[in-house]
Amino acid sequence: MEREKNQSTTENALKWEARKRHLRYQTVFMCLILAFFLLVVWNINTGSVDISVKKILEIIFRRSGDETQYAIIWKIRLPRIAMAAILGGALALSGLLLQTFFRNPIAGPFVLGISSGAKLMVALTMIYFLEHLGRVSSWVLILAAFAGSLLSMGIVLAVSQKIKQMSALLVAGIMIGYICSAITELMITFAQESDIVNLHGWSQGSFSGMSWENVKIAFVVVLVIAVCVFFLGKPMGAFQLGENYAQSMGINIKRFRLLLILCSSLLAACVTAFAGPISFVGIAVPFLMKKCLHTSKPLVVIPVTFLGGSVFCMFCDLLARTVFAPTELNISTVTSILGAPVVIYMLIVQKHSSTSNS
Amino acid sequence: MNQIYFETKELCVGYHGTPLIRDICVSVNKGEILTLIGPNGSGKSTILKSITKQLRLLGGTAWIDRQILSELSVKDLAKKQAVVLTERLQTEMMCCWDVVATGRYPYTNQVGTLSDSDYKMIEESMKMVLAYDIRNKDFGEISDGQRQRIMLARAICQEPEIIILDEPTSFLDIRHKLELLDILRSMAKEKEITVIMSLHEIDLAQKISDKIMCVKGEYIEKIGTPEEIFQDRIIQELYDVEKGTYNMLFGSIELPKPEGESHVFVIAGDGSGVPVYRALQKAGISFSTGVIYTNDVDYQVAKVLANTVITESPFQEISEAAFEKAKKEMSACDYVIYTGTAIRKDNQSFHKLIEEAKEKKKLVTLEELRAKIF
């Protein structure tokens, strides 16, 4: 009797604990969804041209209204919002994958120089194609960015073979980033006058000037990889215990690491191809999301990180457009101001917990 | 029961293609515990890493459950073999329950959702290592003993047929060492899980293992039952113990005995001498002792620490010869310590020894001696 009672009370306790955890996950998720829709509405509603809410609703749902306003909503604001959401999520996810790979929360596409590598290749391709063909397709840009990010990643990995220390690796990544940025700036300086305006804005990071064509391509690429990443969630969870334990649980380590690299590079490349390099989202968002969720379970963290990245970038884009309107800020300016303090806070927290461990 | 579960033939292991140990031939039955002992850097971990596929085998064959190890995929191996490694885990926001739950990896679906039976298995494993209460604590914030038990629970949770542990008791205090090994022992017997591990504590290895492998040099020196391996000489050679001695009966190491002429004579018996001997050894004071029966626990320590031990065969009255020897030895010493051991019919002559010491004002207690010369 007694024993049975004990059994059932522990079972109840377990269920209650599980329910509490799920409630937390659901709350975070719902908050993010709410923030997402709020930001969508807010973003549509703000801009240099004032359009009333009623008209906006008419334009979106009835597809009718003033010609200019229609164009502003459908050709400028909506694709821009969509792009911020898609690419923001992709960027945060890319950071999460790199952190899993290096087993370090400070890894991210920007600090490891992967975004800058992609930027360099995109700039090269853009200048070449614009000069010779006059136009360049998004697919080519993504491919160029992917090649660039893989190249940077390859250098970082080669360095990581030699240097086991994470701090040294980060310095190496940042140096690679500087070199790539310097070369990009150099090329932009000597590019034809007509391209400069375009290139300059892009190379600083911006969600402006997106077409529905861009959105479609970005959506497809990011969706496919995000689904892949979701299925990488299981081995990612095991990999948190380290390579050796992961292998003992039946993970093909080589294949898993390759998949991580490919997915994170593709995501970072896709972002860079369309919006240029965007800093700190990849580190700050996964960290904040894990803190909110109170877990690092990939199955929960992956979707929430994606959503969090979307919300974060939409918010930053909103600030970039409105704070000094009509002057528009670079998206990286805003993400840095908001993201860098988070990273510093993270370093302090990390330091604290690692000293208490040892 | 007596079915061979793990076997190797002419196994050759090492790093980067350079062989470190060759020709390892060993077989372990289901539910048996094989312990690897040997000095630091002898290659115990290398062997363990090789049979867990972390290192490539450089030659020979290993079988697990009659399947050839190198032909098993990591996926299939994961359902048979679980590991507890020496490396210290750095986790990020994982509670103990989460860490244990990763053990279910080989059995869950594509996205890793846990079924009811998985939950039950996790709970059972945690209860088995007595760590169920700390399930919600952050893995980074628990003690070393708890960590090790959680890692063992994780391994048990993987429902393996064999568990490989690399020095599972390092970082643990004696109580946690015993607890962990006790859990291992009962797990091996009840669940018939084969255990292969490396241990630093040879005294514990002797008590827990069914088989011992001595790892030293290019070839395996000896493999056998604890009774075969744990002889003073073998252990002393294995660890190159030149100073000090290994005592097989106690399974413990004694430090080298003090050198020089005896200064103190200890009248002891029934184990009352051991603490005195060790205290004198620690102070570096050379001593003699007697009259000790050869079946007395004092004898085991006395024979390695004392300069001279005057002995008597068990269950005999102390002979005149032994008494005379003791008297002679005593008179050569500056001090005499009587440990207070009971004086019965057969050791009546202790009275005479004590009387004589008193007469010559040599009789002191350990404390008095401490005050005088320590």
Question: How would you portray this structure in words?
Answer:
Chain A is an all-alpha fold and 358 residues long. Chain A has a single domain, classed as Orthogonal Bundle (ABC transporter involved in vitamin B12 uptake, BtuC), CATH 1.10.3470. In chain A, 82% of the residues lie in helices and 0% in strands. Chain A has 13 helices and no strands. Chain A has helices at 2-45, 53-62, 67-102, 114-132, 138-162, 166-190, 193-203, 212-239, 243-248, 253-275, 281-293, 298-322, 331-357. The longest helix of chain A has 44 residues, at 2-45. Chain A is globular and about 65 Å long. The termini of chain A are far apart. The model of chain A is unreliable at 352-358 (pLDDT under 50). By secondary structure, chain B is α/β, with parallel strands linked by helices. Chain B has 2 domains: 4-240, 3-Layer(aba) Sandwich (Rossmann fold); 264-373, NAD(P)-binding Rossmann-like Domain (Rossmann fold), CATH 3.40.50. Chain B is 36% helix and 24% strand. Chain B has 14 helices and 17 strands. Chain B has helices spanning 44-51, 74-78, 96-101, 116-128, 144-157, 174-191, 202-208, 226-229, 232-238, 273-283, 297-305, 320-332, 349-359, 366-373; strands at residues 4-15, 18-29, 33-37, 59-64, 67-68, 81-84, 162-166, 194-198, 211-215, 220-224, 245-247, 252-254, 264-267, 287-293, 308-312, 335-338, 363-364. In chain B, the strands form 4 sheets. Chain B has a 6-stranded mixed sheet, with helices on both faces. In chain B, strands 15-14-13-16-17 form a 5-stranded parallel sheet, with helices on both faces. In chain B, α4 crosses α5 (144-157) and α10 (273-283) packs parallel to α11. The A-B interface holds A 10, 14, 17, 103, 105, 230-231, 233-234, 237-238, 240-242, 244-245, 247-252, 290, 294-297, 299, 353-354, 356-357 and B 52-54, 73-79, 81-83, 85, 87, 89-94, 98-99, 102-103, 105-106, 108, 110-113, 119, 123, 132, 136, 140-141, 158.
